[in-house]
Fold this protein.
Amino acid sequence: MQAIARQTAAREPEDFIGRFNERIRALAANQDLLVRNEWQGVDVGDLVTAQLAHFADLVGSRIAMDGPRLRLNAAAAQAIGMAMHELATNAGKYGALSVDAGRVDVRWRVEGDTFMMSWAERNGPSVSPPKRRGFGSTVVDLMVRQTVNGEVQLDYIASGVVWNLTCPAANLLERNNLPKDSEPTPSSVAASTDGIDYQIGSAELP
């Protein structure tokens, strides 16, 4: 929480209270799911639904979610949950969910020993890369990449924001969800809040 407070104040001082409270609620939603499951992971669908609670009336119409039942480990659930919050907030203020025609597709799957997840906006306002990169971009990119030792691609294309995550399934799924014989890669990083704080301290990332 201290990391979120410092980064929000430094990069978004004009709306500190609002953004800080939103991010604390997003973190609390992740924690609630983990506590409910006795810290034995969180289903991806439940995590996405919790972070899109503000747009619950749009799920099934303008927001489509598709993927198998997969349980994320605690570290991955917190990182991906925060990323979903930042993407949803941006979509609601500036992207596909800010206009009536906009749509969002959230998909996840496992192919072989690789986990893939995407957030794709369409039919929204024309978008372009932000002139100022701040805490939100750090969360959806650096924080997720370091936590699951994966690759994140964030594109601002004309049809809307597209976010893609690819990583070894063993780095973020609970062991009973892993493809047979999968093992975490030796360089896998489980980023704690303190670790994220140190990493983003010098980052110039919205």
